[in-house]
Design a protein that fits this description.
The protein is mostly beta strands. 4% of the residues lie in helices and 46% in strands. The protein contains two helices and 21 strands. The strands form five sheets. Strands 14, 15, 16, 17 and 18 form a five-stranded antiparallel sheet that branches. A four-stranded antiparallel sheet has the order 1-21-20-19. It is globular, with a radius of gyration of 18 Å.
Length: 331
């Protein structure tokens, strides 16, 4: 029997989850998940992934990014049309753009995303205009890389990002993906790359780990969410597909304020594990928790936004001090 994983008691799920689903979208939609969320110009901004046009046995017609706005971070107003769709991309090599992450740096809103191309998965960084109408792509990685998130300020004069490359050849020809960290003088050229956290460092992962939401600065270090995946081939259907063998959970750690390539402390237990019915018994790929946003509310609490079952977007809250203590208790 697979090990039972539980969410930490410091996490409180919003009682009316999910906060966004396909029924809230005024254009074709099936899966609303893996959103990036930021506070920008006095309001909450969400860019979410939408997979649409599902046909059993054939998959989805396409993917776009939607935009939603909120005054309180709980109730969302979805814009009438997608923020980004493939008809806006003049590049025949690009197949789709998805899994957005939002970070505000020096008053500007930046987006990280994954891009499927005919020649591999590329991680991208872009700038969103102040009126939230335009996306300027700043940089794209070589294949294969994704799950990029930006720190909300420069560290030692450089931009910093977390990322998850796909080194299949060097990791034995199968899933064994770790979290890396890179630096840049200008958001375009990236280097000084280092391994930050490996699969074997996370007790509840055996398949892959990677970045989740952009880190939050605290006096104890950068409070950082990550996703962790364990695979069990004995698992059955667990969703719309014939078989789904993975389980996704959310982890929490602290990175050094001045040298974020150093893990100061990490909880040895999941922060959020699939437990609620919309996480375990409903949706496209069940037993999936994927955080994409963490907002510092300035009152000692944070809002954590996460995709559940690759189908809906959800909300949880926690106290920063309790999250920090959770990391340090396991050190």
């Amino acid at each position: 029997m697979e090990p039972k994983l539980k969410s930490s008691s410091v996490i409180k799920r919003y009682e009316h989850n999910p906060i966004l689903s396909d029924k809230d979208i005024p254009y074709p939609a099936n899966l609303i998940f893996n959103a990036g969320v930021a506070k920008f110009n006095g309001r909450y901004v969400m860019v979410f992934r939408n997979d649409y046009g599902y046909e059993d046995g054939k998959g989805f017609e396409g993917t776009n990014l939607g935009l939603a706005l909120s005054d309180d971070g709980v109730k969302w107003n979805v814009q009438d049309k997608p923020f980004f769709s493939m008809d806006m991309m003049d590049d025949s090599d690009v197949l789709r753009l998805y899994d957005p992450r939002l970070t505000v740096i020096d008053g500007e809103l930046f987006i990280c995303f994954a891009m499927d191309t005919r020649h591999g998965v590329r991680g991208g960084i872009g700038r969103i205009s102040d009126d939230l109408q335009n996306l300027e792509i700043i940089s794209l990685s070589v294949p294969d890389n994704r799950n990029m998130v930006l720190f909300p300020e420069k560290i030692d004069g450089k931009y910093v990002r977390l990322e998850r490359p796909f080194p299949v050849y060097s990791r034995g020809g199968t899933d064994r993906f770790d979290m890396w960290i890179s630096k840049s003088p200008d958001l375009k050229y990236w280097g000084e790359s280092e391994l930050l956290l490996a699969v074997e460092n996370v007790p509840y992962a055996n398949d892959k780990i990677g970045p989740a939401a952009p880190p939050i600065k605290t006096d104890k270090g950068w409070l950082t969410l990550f996703h962790a995946v364990d695979r069990d081939e004995s698992r059955g259907k667990h969703g719309w597909e014939d078989k789904w063998t993975k389980r996704y959970t959310a982890g929490i750690m602290l990175l050094d304020l001045n040298e974020p390539s150093k893990v100061v402390a990490m909880s040895n237990e999941p922060l959020i594990a699939p437990e609620e019915v919309y996480e375990t018994d409903e949706g496209f790929r069940q037993h999936v928790i994927f955080p994409g946003g963490m907002i510092d509310e300035g009152d000692g609490t944070v809002k954590i936004y996460y995709g559940a079952s690759d189908t809906v977007e959800c909300l949880a809250t926690a106290y920063k001090d309790e999250l920090i203590a959770l990391c340090k208790e396991s050190k």
